[in-house]
Amino acid sequence: MGKWVYTFGDGSAEGDASQRDLLGGKGANLAEMASLGLPVPPGMTITTEVCTYFYEHDRNYPPELEAEVNAALDKIAASTGRTFGDPKMPLLVSVRSGARISMPGMMDTVLNLGLNDDTVGALAENAGDERFAVDSYRRFIQMYGDVVLGVEMRNFDEHLEALKEEKGIELDTELTADDWRGLIEVYKELVLKETGKPFPQDPKDQLWGAIGAVFGSWRNDRAITYRRLHQIPERWGTAVTVQAMVFGNMGDTSATGVAFTRNPSTGEKQLYGEFLINAQGEDVVAGIRTPQDITERARIEAGSERPSLERSLPDAFKQFREVCDKLEGHYRDVQDLEFTIERGKLWMLQTRAGKRTAKAALKIAVDMVDEGLISEDEAVKRIEPNSLDQLLHPMIDPKAKTDQFAKALPASPGAASGEIVFTSEEAERLAASGRPCILCRIETSPEDISGMHAAGGIFTTRGGMTSHAAVVARGMGKPCVSGAGGVKIDYAKGTISSNGVTLKAGDKITIDGGTGEVFVGEVPMLKPELSGDFQRLMGWADGTRRMRVRTNADTPHDAKTAREFGAEGIGLCRTEHMFFDPARIMAMREMILADDTDGRRAALDKLLPMQREDFTQLFEIMAGLPVTIRLLDPPLHEFIPHTDEEISDVARALGADPEKLKNRARMLAEFNPMLGHRGVRLAVSYPEIAEMQARAIFEAAIAAAQKTGAPVVPEVMVPLVGLKSELEFVKKRIDATAKAVSEETGQTFTYQVGTMVELPRAALNADKIAEQAEFFSFGTNDLTQTTFGISRDDAGVFLGSYLREAIIDVDPFVSLDTEGVGELIRIGAERGRATRPDIKLGICGEHGGDPASIKFCETVKLDYVSCSPFRVPIARLAAAQAALG
Amino acid sequence: MGKWVYTFGDGSAEGDASQRDLLGGKGANLAEMASLGLPVPPGMTITTEVCTYFYEHDRNYPPELEAEVNAALDKIAASTGRTFGDPKMPLLVSVRSGARISMPGMMDTVLNLGLNDDTVGALAENAGDERFAVDSYRRFIQMYGDVVLGVEMRNFDEHLEALKEEKGIELDTELTADDWRGLIEVYKELVLKETGKPFPQDPKDQLWGAIGAVFGSWRNDRAITYRRLHQIPERWGTAVTVQAMVFGNMGDTSATGVAFTRNPSTGEKQLYGEFLINAQGEDVVAGIRTPQDITERARIEAGSERPSLERSLPDAFKQFREVCDKLEGHYRDVQDLEFTIERGKLWMLQTRAGKRTAKAALKIAVDMVDEGLISEDEAVKRIEPNSLDQLLHPMIDPKAKTDQFAKALPASPGAASGEIVFTSEEAERLAASGRPCILCRIETSPEDISGMHAAGGIFTTRGGMTSHAAVVARGMGKPCVSGAGGVKIDYAKGTISSNGVTLKAGDKITIDGGTGEVFVGEVPMLKPELSGDFQRLMGWADGTRRMRVRTNADTPHDAKTAREFGAEGIGLCRTEHMFFDPARIMAMREMILADDTDGRRAALDKLLPMQREDFTQLFEIMAGLPVTIRLLDPPLHEFIPHTDEEISDVARALGADPEKLKNRARMLAEFNPMLGHRGVRLAVSYPEIAEMQARAIFEAAIAAAQKTGAPVVPEVMVPLVGLKSELEFVKKRIDATAKAVSEETGQTFTYQVGTMVELPRAALNADKIAEQAEFFSFGTNDLTQTTFGISRDDAGVFLGSYLREAIIDVDPFVSLDTEGVGELIRIGAERGRATRPDIKLGICGEHGGDPASIKFCETVKLDYVSCSPFRVPIARLAAAQAALG
Predict the structure, then answer these.
(1) pLDDT interval class at B229 (50, 70, 90)
(2) Which NCBIfam families match (chains A, B) (predicted)?
């Protein structure tokens, strides 16, 4: 059996800061501070392993626990000279939760434990303040009653309010010791009535009750929700810290406060914090009294009249500043501190790494490198890659007044304002006349691409974080809010309604894709700025990472954006998006309707110059860099209209028989399009399509090279390959096309042919496929769909319950499933390299921009990751962190 | 470099019968016969490796080949005393193809090669028959012109016909030597005109032309199609055998014939065959003259007047019978022979294992065991498992006159006649009044199950071998013909049309699911009979195999059939089929419509007694055997109607609001149902469904055990598991239900909980999942869909071109893809056993009844295979063969 309890205090401790997993963040850092000789009230931490044991044994404790707790209490007694229930020197303690990662406000806390009808007198005597003592007792009954005994807080509040009304007063502070004493009796009766038992008087009983309540709170609804949102595993559990009480509310030489060693919002190197004289910690947070600034400088800057701690309690302040410096130097990071001053004496109650904005994080990291506190590598590791997203997009001005219309999923970050439009056509029309708009749709489909491009942002009422709208918007770097279930769009009436508010087309709204909020009207915004700190840190990251970072880009606009963000090539250019353009879709439909190869070739001949022009532009932007182009992937029915009316329109435009078009649509319809006639299967059925695309690519490569002088190496990617023979079939035709183009033009050029590994069969047979493929790009979107057997379009319905029931920790479409999909990548990389040691390996798909997934990619030594343009900086940083291990 | 040419003749040979891969079947057996000292005209075989070289080198030969061929010709010359072009003793040869597996009639043959304007005279002299010599020469020009020079046969025929017309005669035999001589000149002119070159006179040139033509014919259209149909790989190639000619047409002491050492249709131990006096081999096959029986016994039985070989040429017959006995004894199998008697001397031209009917194969194998010729194990290996299918179903009487209506895919074997019906309801109505019917549908869906049960057979115009209709029909053992593309069904008019013939509901048709034929009217049939030979052979198989054979059965009828066929339990009981029953689907829909858990439970309470009764019946039939029951698998929308009209009807029946039902249908609709909200995902969302099913299973197990005294061990199978945590979630509820049932009834029972491994992720994580699973059943239908990323319902469109282009050899839904799906099974089995060495492993799904797949299952040591009832004998035999290796 392990050790269940760790003590700390008096300049020493059994644990240290490295033991967060066992002692929780709070317990580990209290131990560390105690060992550093800082003033920490003595206490003990009951480990997270007890929490695990507790839930595995039907809420019972390990048999050894009681003895260990008692021994620790003896130690606290020895240090403080106080024992539980002692009529002269009673020990009072706080009981707090502490998980590996802070979950603020999610779990329960009990203060002042140890007070009872007897010890309250001793507290009064010790403190020389009777009112303080009885106030503490009634707070304790209230808190313990609520947290441990399950008597709702509002029951206590009712009695308190009644008393104040009876006395005709408004503030608690006006109540006397006698008033509190009377209320204590009322409270005790309330507890008896509600629980059938008297309020426990034995401090030990109180303690065990509180410990059980804290462990129990690990599984309260709030905590479960919080963990789900923050992807904190259930099994981690919480520790419980029991610590001798100190009081910031023992008169005017007592105080309590919170502070950061640097400004968490700007990163400026200034002590930053707030405090209250004669108060308990809860009061600072509760916001009933306005807190005071800690430093004189901050007070002056804020123009405040209330005295600073620096002025009010200069000795304690001086000591506190020394503690701050010591802790920052020790942890080599900004600290977020809680402290209490009891009658002039400083006590440290908590320290932890301070949460900060992305901007502050960059400044702090770069400053600390300049200060010699940390290395460049450490600076790189300090920045949460996803946090960079904040810096790349416009933001709602935090000071702006807003009128919330709806709140849904933050599907693609950034904010945008504009007129409401309900159709792609309308979006394009407004964009053409320079009027910003927000495209509002129940859901989007590939036909909406041009409208999504035209709009400033997208808002959908259906679909999750990985819906079509969300994925495409992130790809474009457009703000998107999706899945607003409660919002109703009526296309016919041209209205959108939420909570009784109805807006119509042309009304202005603002969406915040970083929070999922939608506001009525235009809301002021802040422009993104990439500071010098950003550039320096990214430079260090680029010097560190091993993997290249490419981008997924289908348009010159995306390609340019990505280059500005540091992309080193294109990892995925999806050619089908090019065909949805209204000018082109007609030729595409003509091809689909053609009766034979000749008819198809005729239609393809119309598409060829357009495709060539697309690629020429991309190749010019990516001069000298590699560009991976995926051959046509989606099933042909995606290009054909579905309703009878649309079919008639299209047939008219094509000069075709509507019945024929209808028939073709019926023939192309599929039960499971995801697993249907698409990818390489199209190229096998209609090799002329692949030939046209290959020709466009090679002709463009020549044209662009002549302009820029820096040729790209086009990588022709055949999608959805499962068999070597499939790739062989298509590669033969691509090679023949290359030969033909080279002969016709008299130009030579370099290219590669490879495949997207997005089927389990491809990964398993990577050794054979690598005989034909010069590169693999792991298409983890589809690989996730096939490995899990989950349709991304349909998964929303049940993935919710999976997360809720903790069957999965994280949506596998958001972060790579390393045990399943990752295992296939590992197998694919290994077998591919066995055949062709220098095979180029990359990842495209959503995971290429996800830091956790990028970390995995480093472990299997992929050559590059590819992600949407706005995630390129994130990927660069994440790749650097992954390389640092 | 290897050796390219193998000679044989004169009692010795360079090759032998084991070298089929190198020498082709024909060449290997000629070599073997020569070594046995049998009379074989001397010759040489150019190996299949030359064929491979030929195609890999742009139709050029290895440089050493010419010298090797010349050396072999010298050897033939030494043996026969004849050389090419010799004016006295010219050598004439035949040039024939010979693949590893016989491809009758698919490739080209040239006879009489070596004849030219000079040697024809020597032939006449040698034979003492001028007409014979010039007839041989004109045959040679005709055959060589057609096969080697590309002059179409009908050009020659036109001249021949013109000549006969001119002479006013009908039979070739009436033409004189002079007539032939004249025709030879006409033919030579024709060749000159068509090819621009004179007919080659140099026998060596003739030979190389013929060799090239035979190798070239490996890739003619007929051969390609044949290989595709018979799954013969392209890369095998053909050998070419060049052999000295012998002549069965040198007068009345010459003859040619074919024979089987036993009757290939009944298996009876009697020499069986046909011959013609004064004829070449081609004449026997061509059917212009009616051949004679070989034995006197056969002649008498057939009531023929034409003399037998036994009578006509008794010496040659005696020698031939000895050769037959020697070859059968040597090969220890029935031989299919070709022979020629040249002026009383017997020459053997071919021997190979004789093709035989399933019935004959059984009798021959069992007889040969009794004769001590082969062992029981060998007998087991001799039977092609799939051939047993012929014995289990009624067959169209081969002697019946038929009127073909259509021909499509042989989707499920057996024949059936009945009235045409177009709806399930109609099928049930007719069945209820005892009228056999054939259900004709464009395609079938799960709602047609009851109609398919009621009908005697199913005929669909869409869908392939693995369509819903085909799979379900095979499961039921019902004949089915599917995918009749050219046939039109008009539901509104109640008609079905093919090639201008229109039939209507009520008209009678007959379908043959073994051939894909559909006939107008009722065709007489033969009943299946399982002979004593069958029982004995299956007994040997059962004694040999390691794997158990279970069945996939959902109904008592299927379960009983399977037991009769020797099933040793149920490997897959699909519970959803039980819910499509009209009486139950309403309760099912009520459940789907329920707003909350309570509503669902109320509806499930109605289903519970029905489910329990289903299982009780199955458990009684399977007394003492294991039964695997799969929990509800399909997405719920399969139980809901789709058209507005049907929705209204159902809503009325349920007393529900049609709008609500419509809404629910809309919400349940999925883009990719195969990857949607189904399997274990349903059990996670609605645990109460799994609980109801588990309860029904356990209560039924108790009830059945009380009746039969031989309890089954129910194996509760959770489908579509990808994560250990999913299974854990459901298993907890199943275990709790078992505990509850046990407590309520006071009965104990044994059960297991396991999962279907049908997702790549499950196979890859089998080690973790096995912590929760007591058994795995590899669900290879879905595993194939996910591993390949191919929807079975949609694959028909492109799998055709895949087979045509030789991108795949065989439909992976028919025979297990061992490299992809099989790799996952191997990984799954290995990792599952690593965690739980005694984990029970099986396979369900279509592949469980496919011999090639069963062979694979033996290599990974699965414990059992499970297949549809009618495939149980096939699986038993295939499992035995697999065990024999």
Answers:
(1) low
(2) PRK05878.1, pyru_phos_dikin
- Given A722, A787, A798, which is nearest B761 (Cβ)? A787
pLDDT < 70 stretches in chain A: 1, 229, 284-288, 466, 475
Report chain A residues whose CB lies below 8 A from the CB of B785.
675
Question: Residues A368, A372, A375, CA angle at the centre, nearest 5°?
Answer: 75
Task: Please report the sign of the dihedral spanned by the C-alpha atoms of residue A762, residue A764, residue A765, residue A769.
Answer: positive
Q: Is B17 exposed, middle or buried (0-12, 13-18, 19+ CB in 10 A)?
A: buried
pLDDT confidence of residue A385: 95
- DSSP H helices, B746-845, are 760-764, 766-769, 780-788, 796-804, 821-835
Interface of A with B in 115-134 (CB under 8 A): none
Question: Which pLDDT does position B287 carry in this prediction?
Answer: 57
What pLDDT is recorded for position B370?
Answer: 97
Å from B683 to nearest chain A CA? 11
Please enumerate in sequence order all residues whose Cβ is within 8 A of that of A506, keeping only pairs 6 or more positions apart, or say none.
A419, A420
ipTM for the predicted complex comes to 0.82
Chain A residues inside the 8 Å CB shell of B671:
673-674, 791, 793-794
CA-based end-to-end distance of chain B? 33
B78 touches chain A (CB under 8 A): no
pLDDT of B872 strictly over 90: yes
- Judged on CB neighbours under 10 Å (0-12, 13-18, 19+), B816 is buried
The one-letter amino acid code at B610 reads M
Nearest Cα of chain B lies from the Cα of A777 at a distance, in angstroms, of 17
Q: Which of residues 780-839 of A touch B (CB under 8 A)?
A: 782, 785-791, 793-794, 797-798, 801-802, 805-808, 817, 819-821, 823-824
Phi, psi of B450 (to 5 degrees): -65, -35
**Alpha-carbon A505 to chain mean position:** 33
Per-chain mean pLDDT for chain B: 92
Shortest Cα distance from B580 to chain A (angstroms)? 20
H/E stretch holding B79: helix B65-80
* Chain B CA closest to residue A799: B681
CA triple A472-A474-A475, angle to 5 deg = 60
Structure tokens at B863: 């414990």
- Evaluate whether B237 touches B52 at the Cβ level (below 8 Å): yes
Instruction: Report the candidate in A302, A249, A296 with the shortest Cα–Cα distance to residue A277.
Output: A249
* Percentage with pLDDT > 70 across chain B: 99
Q: Would you call A437 a catalytic residue per the annotation?
A: no
Residue A77 has a pLDDT of 95
User: 3-class secondary structure for B191-219?
Assistant: HHHHHCCCCCCCHHHHHHHHHHHHHHHCC
> What tokens does B57 get?
């080198």
pLDDT at residue A466, rounded to an integer: 64
Asked if B760 and A765 come within 8 Å (Cβ–Cβ), the reply is: no
User: Given this model, what pLDDT does residue A582 score?
Assistant: 76
Largest CA distance in chain B: 103
Q: What is the pLDDT of residue A229?
A: 65
- Select from B466, B597, B672, B689 the residue whose CB has the most chain A CBs within 10 Å, as the one to mutate to test that interface: B672
Shortest CA distance to B249 belongs to which of B369, B134, B99? Answer: B134
Average confidence (pLDDT) over B315-322: 96
What pLDDT, on a 0 to 100 scale, did the predictor assign at position A285?
A: 60
> Which residue ranges form the domains of chain B, and what is each CATH number?
5-244 (3.30.1490.20), 255-353 (3.30.470.20), 394-526 (3.50.30.10), 545-584+591-632+676-884 (3.20.20.60)
Q: Are B93 and B212 in contact (CB under 8 A)?
A: no
| Nearest residue of A to residue B800, measured between CA atoms | A685
